[in-house]
Target: 2-isopropylmalate synthase
Amino acid sequence: MTHPTTDADKKASDRVIIFDTTLRDGEQCPGASMTFEEKLEVAELLDTMGVDVIEAGFPIASVGDFESVSEIARRTKRAVIAGLARAIPGDIARAGEAVRHAQRGRIHTFVSTSPIHLAHQMRKSEEEVLEIIAATVAQARNLVEDVEWSAMDATRTPVEYLCRCVEAAIKAGATTINLPDTVGYATPDEYRTMFRTIRERVPNADKAIFSVHCHDDLGLAVANSLAGVEGGARQVECTINGLGERAGNAALEEIVMAIRTRRDILPYETGIDTTMLTRASKLVSAVTSFPVQYNKAIVGRNAFAHESGIHQDGMLKNASTYEIMTPESVGVNKTSLVMGKHSGRHAFREKLKALGYDLGENALEDAFRRFKDLADRKKNVYDEDIEALVDEEILTAHD
Ligand code: KIV
Ligand code: ZN
Model:
């Protein structure tokens, strides 16, 4: 990580807008679709936890999507509600209609800019795409004040052409410019440099807020997003649990906690109530039926669990030895010291205390040996196993 270096980086140095796209890109994750009611529930929680922009869906995609975006727009008190639209007049009109009743509505329109997409998907020339950008952004801007334009596959677009596209979009009225790493191809250095270059070269760049949108195909989505912020972006597009197309998007909880935990080198702020992160993760996992991997950063069930004897001993002496954030800060009640074959005497003694046992030194030694034998044979050692083992120890001692 590097510090913000240019004047422009420093000027914009604190607030990072959190744009959640769980209900749009997240729902594009195969098998993760949500019902109308589930979407309303997720949107309400996102709004309560302080998400700045909720991308509620892709209104042209289906009647269901249109209805859920409209209803979320009607109900949401605080967050900006965005509806996605391709660079097609019908899409833009539909998105405008869907966010019409929002207190603060946004149309998010996108078009591909990379040579690969232009040749094989769009079958259009660079000049034609520039004309499309100007016309569609202007159309959106006639419907709402808040227009986001995205350059799909920006990271595989030559920077000279990307600059022309960005300039055209801002000229036509875009207020946010999103430069996605659509296929998760960029590295952090490349992504940071791309933002710096575009912001330096595009004459009207200071009229828009720049945004990152990273996919996780190489496992770099969060690192790339943070690098983009270092390059001057001030909006991060992300999803709860990192849900999203293919390998997913940058995980909201990881972005927010990285910024909070490493303020020393990431001198930014978000408006997220981090104590709600675990609740949001559980809700999204439940409504999509997508389990959260046990070792997932921040919200995985092992994120605050320690098994090794060395770590447990450290944790019992001072939590900062092996935890860089508190479980409470993300809405988890407490750290757990998981009893297993790697656990040591110190943790075992504390576990017995917590279970209400007070054994003398010899009995404790005996019980600890038997616990280690058991842990070698059994994958999970539960409190009940330890209780049974100690009760047996006490009974044997009485015989
Ligand atoms: O990944 C992407 O490029 C997108 C755009 C629609 C913003 O999701
Ligand atoms: Zn995406």
